[in-house]
Amino acid sequence: MCLKPVVLLYDLDNAVVDECAALIGHTGLYTAINTYNETNAVEAMQQYNRGFGLITNKLACLITGWNHYKKPRDQFLFQVRSEEGRSPFRNPTPFIIITEDHRQDLKQIALDPTDGNVAAYLHADDFQEIIADTLHKIVFENRANEMNSIAYAQLQRQHHVDE
């Protein structure tokens, strides 16, 4: 029996979670866990911890968005990164952010390789066309760090052009 990689989905917008789960479910390659609040997302993460949270968890990827009711540093992404930083034996869990928010400051901290280290930052209006391919690159081609580096470099170039 071959176990499928597990993808955790969490967003306050239930429609985005359901749509994303349906899209990746159609591939037949992943097991999706849909969570609609942070408490459930944290509980799901704890169920996939290994070594009492000291080594990298068993989740293949986390797909989330921004919680507009929280400050940037209080976001789920940074809670996970803080937890991962407590052990030298943990690697960062790959993240995909899906958002309708165009704030450059949020995109900057999410893509910063030393901070958010997000593999992909997708817009809520058009993620449907690329989510399955993006997830495949992260999970099966192990390209999360490469994708983060490319996205961060593109953001830096765009920032310098805008100045």
Number of strand segments: 5
Number of helices: 6
Helicity, in percent? 40-55%
The CA-CA distance between the termini, in Å, is 54 Å
Strand fraction band?
15-25%
CATH superfamily: Response regulator
Alpha-carbon Rg, integer: 15 Å
Oligomer: single chain
**How many distinct folded domains?**
1
Looking at this protein, list some descriptive labels.
163 residues; alpha/beta; Rossmann fold; globular
Condensed summary:
It contains six helices and five strands, in the order βαβαβαβαβαα.
Structural features, described:
The protein is α/β, with parallel strands linked by helices and 163 residues long. It has a single domain, classed as Rossmann fold (3-Layer(aba) Sandwich), CATH 3.40.50.2300. Helices cover 41% and strands 15% of the residues. The protein is built from six helices and five strands; from the N terminus they run E-H-E-H-E-H-E-H-E-H-H. It has helices at 14-25, 38-47, 76-84, 104-111, 131-139, 144-162; strands at residues 6-10, 31-35, 59-64, 95-99, 120-123. A five-stranded parallel β-sheet has the order 2-1-3-4-5, sandwiched between helices. The longest helix is centred in the last third of the chain and has 19 residues, at 144-162. 33% of the residues are buried.
